[in-house]
Amino acid sequence: MKYKAYTSRNFEEIPQISTLSSKTIEEMKAVAAVFPFKTNNYVVEQLINWNNIPADPVYQLTFPQPGMLPKNILDKLTDAVRSGDSEQLAVQARNIQMEMNPQPAGQLELNVPEYYNQPLSGLQHKYRETVLFFPEHGQTCHAYCTYCFRWAQFIGIDELKMAGRETEILIDYLEDHPEVTDLLITGGDPMFMRTKLVRRYIEPILRKKPGGLQTIRIGTKALSYWPYRFTTDSDAPELLDLFREVAAAGFNLSVMAHFTHIVEMETEEAAAAIELIKSTGAVIRCQSPILKQINDDADMWAEMWKKQVHFGLIPYYMFVARDTGPKSYFTLTLDETYRIFSKAMRQVTGLARTVRGPSMSTKAGKVLLVGISEINGEQFYALKFIQARDTELVNKVFYAKYNPDAVWITDLKPAFDSDRRFFTGQKPEVEFLLPCRSGRDSEVEAGKNCC
Length: 451
Ligand SMILES: *Cc1c(COP(=O)(O)O)cnc(C)c1O
Ligand code: SF4
Description:
Elements: E1 5-7, H1 22-34, E2 38-40, H2 41-47, H3 57-62, H4 71-83, H5 86-99, E3 114-115, E4 118-119, E5 123-127, E6 130-133, H6 151-154, H7 167-176, E7 182-185, H8 195-208, E8 215-220, H9 222-225, H10 236-248, E9 252-258, H11 268-279, E10 283-290, H12 298-310, E11 314-320, H13 334-345, E12 356-361, E13 365-375, E14 378-388, E15 397-401
Parallel strand pairs: 6-7, 7-8, 8-9, 9-10, 10-11, 11-12
Antiparallel strand pairs: 1-2, 3-4, 5-6, 12-13, 13-14, 14-15
Helix pairs in contact: 1-4, 4-5, 8-10, 12-13
C-alpha cells in the first residue's frame, strides 16, 4: 500500500470527511489549530468504522474533538475558521499552546544524564537498569494520537525537542554504566525512520556490545498505524534483517508495541507484520494508556489481551492516562480505571495476566494501583511501586484514603502516617518539556501516555 499522509492541511481530501457536517469540520479545524493531527490512508480506510462516527474509537484517537478545548476557546477559534482568517487562527492557536506550557524552567534537565559535564539531551536515565534513547530522526510518528503529550516535539517548538546525539556518545555512556542492561529506543516513533537510519543507530551498538547491555527495546506504534513498515514497504526486508542481526549479536530485541484498541490488531496486515517480526526472534510486548472515549471497556481489554496471547505477544503495561483536558476528555477516575482493569483480568488466563496496571508514571517511579481494600469498615487504595528511581522503593506497598474522584496519585492522601513518605515526588513524570493539554494549572506537568 502506498503511504498517504493526512494532516489538518489536506484532511478534506479524505473521502469520508465529506459525510461529516460542516459544523463538525469547522470545529475539527479549530481544535486542530491547537492540537495538530496527522493520520494516513491505512488508519482512515482500514481502522475507522465510518458508520460509527463520532463514537468510533480510532476516529476519537485520530481526529481532534470539540470536547478537547473549553467552550469559550473553541467558539473563538471556530469563529476564526469561519471568517477564513488563517493568520488570526494561527496567532490565537499559538497563544493557547504557549499558555498551555506550564513547565517551570529547568525541568528538562531532570533525568538527563551528563557526560564529561555535558548534558546528553537525547538520553534519559531514570531507572538504574534502563536508559531511554531518543534518536534525533525518530521524533515524529506515522500518525499522532489525540491524547499524546509528545506532540510539541512534532510541531516545531524546537527548544522543547530532545534531540538525539551521536550513537557514539550513547555507547560511551553505556560503557561507563555497566549496570544498564536495557536500552529503550523511543520517540516519537523510531520505526518512522527509514531502515538505513535505524541501522545507523543500532549497528554500532551490535558491534561494540557496550557495558552490560543485554536488551534493546524499540517503542513503536507502527504495528497499529502502518504495519506495512514491516511487510511491503521497500525497506521492510532490510529492517527485518537488522532485527535478525540484533538477535545474532546476542541481544534480546523487544518491540514495545502500543495497541490502544483491538481493532488495530484485526487487519490482515497487522497479523502479517506481527508474524514477520516474530520470525526474526524479536519479542513483542504490548502497552497502552486507558482512556475515556477510546478504550474504557473491560471486555475489549480482555479480548485484546487474549488476542495478544493468541498471536504470541506479551501483554505488558496498562497506563493510567494523565488528565488530558479541561473537560477531562480522556480522563477516567482511578476508581473507574481499577474496575475496568479488574473486570478485564477476570476474563483471561495467567498468560495474559503478565500485564501490569493500572500504572501511573510519576517522578518517583511507576506506581501500580493494586486494589481497593476495606479495613475496619473503611476503604483504602493499595498502591505499589513497580519501578522507582530510588531502588529501595521497588515492590513497596503503601496505602491511600479512598477517593472516588481522584484521577492521579496527587489527588490521594496517605492512609496512615507511615505512608506519608511515599507521597513525595509523586507529580506526574516529566519526560519532556512539553505543553500540557490541560492548561488548567501551572503545576500540571507533561506525563507519559504513550510509546
Ligand atoms: C517504564 C520506564 C522504563 C522501563 O521500565 P521497565 O519497568 O523496565 O519496563 C524506563 N524508563 C522510564 C522513564 C520509564 O518510564
Ligand atoms: S502516543 Fe506514540 S504514536 Fe501516538 S503520537 Fe504519541 S508517540 Fe506518537
